[in-house]
């Protein structure tokens, strides 16, 4: 299917948006439709059918996606708001769950702006299949809003029965919106089953008008009033859809930042929930069928897959699983213990007719990356000739296993100005020898939320957010890459997210590496330098294994907090203010490491943090070990000579032991 690119609204056009905009309307139908799940699709009684469709209509049923797909899971807290009106009609809007007691919708839906009173209301959750009410549930809604604001067109209403226990809740985000940022809108247009607007759905440039409204090009209909506007990169609600402009062909939403400033209920609800299950989109070819069977059969299946599909992008994953589950255990050696056992997937080579060559001078198979991704078979290779390939604000989406390989790494670059230059959702694949640069005001170079991805000998640059952002069920392997600039080099978050790294370099970030929300990382032989705030953050239950690495000139080289935990061996920390801080339940075990010339302290432990330190060298700093405010630890066999103070133990420190240290 071809993808039509819509022009993003220009700054000049955005200046003219004031006069022509009108509030979106609830879809109105006969009173007899109130209480039904399935409503016959027809023109609403108001005669107002299209709220604002931009070009050809692209609002599609969410049932087009698998039951366990990320989009279906994302839409679970979003439902239809049914309104019985005193004028004898039934109105339909959209609302979504923000906590166990409350929904968010438009003020013009409930209590309403037209002078027509709402006599009854209910929230319908789980209505996702057109024409079928199976799985849908009704919840009663209080007619009197807990909070509402006509100017911001929002209302927080009470819902009974706690639908969040089954359907979850949406995450709210009050951060600024980026120009041309990719968006989704999920709702119930014309009272029908849940639909999503994706194609051509983006913010304008600039994103926010002089009125303080988000201007977007997402298709909506009557009944989409109260729909969440969702940022693609992190699936958080950034605005509340509410109006359209018939002259300019654009829609409007109220930025969540403005609403959060006024709403105490939503401020309290803005704490992110646990991440939802994410399942990569299915792919299909002969090797994909074998892969599905291999996972069911186990060792014999992996063997058959590797014999038949050795050049497929999933082959490294099959080899890893085979090595883990099927190989006879070997005696452990000192070398195995030092390096942790596992290695990164080997670099496969192209085989057969599964290669597409991209060249901007027409000497290849195609001249652009979008065509290459569309035409390459699953498990294939895209070989990229030298040049700068600009993927604009839409970025390049990868949903099937493949390899992107630069033929000349020194002169080959993929760049884009949108929320993500590369969006990786395939079950496997590799990026080799490329410079990937995010050039916009906000966004990431590589975004991954599913499958396995290896990035090898590449340069990853973002001027603002993370260069690489991995979450949910992402399994990421990074080897011999350079990360440069931006707020963050690498962000990994989510219980099933895992990253393994070797031989990478991070420099000139605010926060070089961050692990959160129970993510797991194994980091070996990496270098981190000149980060202005932190070199490596481990928090919200994330787990770290750090070996043979070097940190230089960083304010806080390693920070563990909020139940983050780690082990550190044979790692060097030089200069900066603090080498390691453990706080707020964070804990770390450090062995055979060296911390030299910290301006404040080598180790600081406080606020319920815990540090086990042994056989390490802490020298030429103001404080070797600083224990404060309920911090605990055990310090044995360390060399703390040549510090101004080997230990500083403050009143209120927790239990700790110190034995056989050289002070």
Write up this protein.
The protein has 663 residues and is mainly beta. It has two domains: 11-37 and 50-269, Thrombin, subunit H (Beta Barrel); 442-659, Pectate Lyase C-like. The strands form five sheets. The protein has a 14-stranded parallel sheet, with helices on one face. A twelve-stranded parallel sheet has the order 21-24-27-30-33-36-39-42-45-48-51-53. Strands 20-23-26-29-32-35-38-41-44-47-50 form an eleven-stranded parallel sheet, with no helix packed on it. Helix 8 runs antiparallel to helix 9. Pfam families: Beta_helix, Trypsin_2. Its EC number is 3.4.21.-. Residues 1-24 form the signal peptide. Keywords: Hydrolase, Protease, Serine protease, Signal.
List keywords for this structure.
Thrombin, subunit H, 663 residues, 11 helices, 14-stranded parallel sheet, 12% helix, mainly beta
| Biggest sheet record | 14 strands, parallel
Overall number of strands: 54
Tell me the β content: 35-45%
* Residue runs with pLDDT of under 50 for 5 or more positions: 1-21, 42-57, 272-285, 329-344
Fraction in helix? 10-25%
CATH class of the largest domain: Mainly Beta
Overall geometry comes to: globular
**Secondary-structure-derived class:** mainly beta
How far apart, in Å, are the first and last alpha carbons?
70 Å
Could you report the average pLDDT, rounded to the nearest whole number? Answer: 83
The neighbouring-strand order within the major sheet is 18-19-22-25-28-31-34-37-40-43-46-49-52-54
CATH architecture of the largest domain: Beta Barrel
Reported by name, the CATH topology of the largest domain is Thrombin, subunit H
Signal peptide: 1-24
Domain Right handed beta helix: 430-557, 563-651
InterPro entries: Beta_helix (IPR039448), PbH1 (IPR006626), Pectin_lyas_fold (IPR012334), Pectin_lyase_fold/virulence (IPR011050), Peptidase_S1_PA (IPR009003), Peptidase_S1_PA_chymotrypsin (IPR043504), Peptidase_S1B (IPR008256)
Organism: Pseudoponticoccus marisrubri
